[in-house]
């Protein structure tokens, strides 16, 4: 099990930046996930999002990554979540999981993304095209 990078940042993120440190010559598969800000939610137009995190969020995302890696000993992984103001098209969550074989990479990446969204104290404030806004909590 190897966790390479975890974090919460206000800077732009991408799987392209994470992948070179995760993938090694032993890896026959790399699965990436980019959580991209889309222009709609539940039929409503979205103009932008603001993500906020609890001070414990960096430790929580590291713990989630370690738990996923422990369940999948052959994987190498990185995961970073962005906070602050994001526009449509920006990446909010970037994850890279590599392993000798594809199946383990796919399974571990799915678990990693689901558990970050479920367990890490990050909240999003959505702003809609009609001028309305709403808060959505990752911990519901």
TrEMBL record:
InterPro entries associated with the record: MoaE_sf, Mopterin_biosynth_MoaE
Pfam families found in the cross-reference section: MoaE
Gene Ontology BP annotations: Mo-molybdopterin cofactor biosynthetic process
Superkingdom of the organism of origin: Bacteria
Protein name, UniProt field: Molybdenum cofactor biosynthesis protein MoaE
